[in-house]
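Good day; I would like, with your permission, to put a structural problem before you. I would ask you to consider whether the tokens describe a fold that such a sequence might reasonably adopt. The full record is reproduced below for your convenience:
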Amino acid sequence: MTLYLTRRPRLRPTLRLRLTLLNGILLIGAGAILVLLAWLLVRDALRPTDELLPGTTVVLADGRTLDAGQWQRQLVDTASRELLAKGLVALLAISAVAVAGAYAVAGRALRPLYQVTSTARRLGEATLDQRIGYSGADDEVAELAKTFDAMLDRIAGAFEAQKRFVANASHELRTPLAVMRTEIDVTLSDDEADVAEFRRMATVVRDASERANGLVDALLVLARSEAQAGRRLGRKSECDLADGTANALSAVRREVERIKLRVETELEPAPVVGDPGLLDRLAGNLIENAVRYNHLHGRLWVRTGSDGHETWLVVGNTGFEVDQADVPGLFEPFRRGGRERTGARGSGLGLSIVRAVCDAHGGSVRVIAQPGGGLEVTVTLPAAAVTPVVSASAAVTTGVLPRIAADVKAD
């Protein structure tokens, strides 16, 4: 037989118990001081024979005759004993009531803390909708409860975003796989399929596999960028954003010529310190999006520069109109203008990667929706001449930016 020894539950020095003891000690000490002061005052005040002549006697109600001084001493001793006895009894009664009241009041005041604890214990993926909902006085406890509820709102939002991301990623991966399987099954079930049909099927399968491979690559880049957020870059070297931007423009030149875009560039030196691969992807994603969502005979303008403290990359384009309120949604994975972008062109992760790369390099992203359609995206990073010591958040803001004074020349 195995014996299991368990510890007896000990009395924990909880906050409620400490507050009760503190209030009890303060009240008992104050009561003791009052009793002591009353005792001293009585002893000093009961001096009725001090003004009588020596040898004066008093006759008591029972017929006894006593010296006035002796009678005064007996009176003071009796009054002092009765005051101390009754005062101590009253002090004990008041102390008991005070401790009980302090325990009840402390429990009521700390009730939101118990709600925080019980809510935290019940929290799980299926119970993130629970909140404290404190409705008491507007004090520090209420502030704590509101802060905890706000934290739960952020956690719930993060879980929902993660679920949405996984669902959209699964949908994006399932689509090319379904296309490949359908093409293969249809072609193999056709007994009269010839070489041309098999070539067509192979072309469709290749395109679908390239789409799936592109999505996987984008997911890996996004995961790599987010893992290096907060200045935890695995690779840091000095590079020029202007060079990566020029390479990205060269990569989309054929598409630019196809839709007859007017490209305006001013590529001034833009030195930064960071991961060259991620920075090249940042510039490439911005320019690819600017070309992909442009229209025939549209415009594309690109500027880079630095003032010694900050380095910037500005990519603007014409295109379909985007509501300024929908701009933050562009940086969510698989979303475009506040709408799901699964099934659309591209992986839907371009701007998400841009924000993650900026965050990893201590930069920021700002976006302006153009009045006639299109966007202007400004990426700001610390220049190579300075060494950032804190990480910055790549927050997406929608306010109007001061234009960078520059003479724009046509490419």
In short: The two ends are 88 Å apart (CA to CA). The first helix runs from residue 15 to 45.
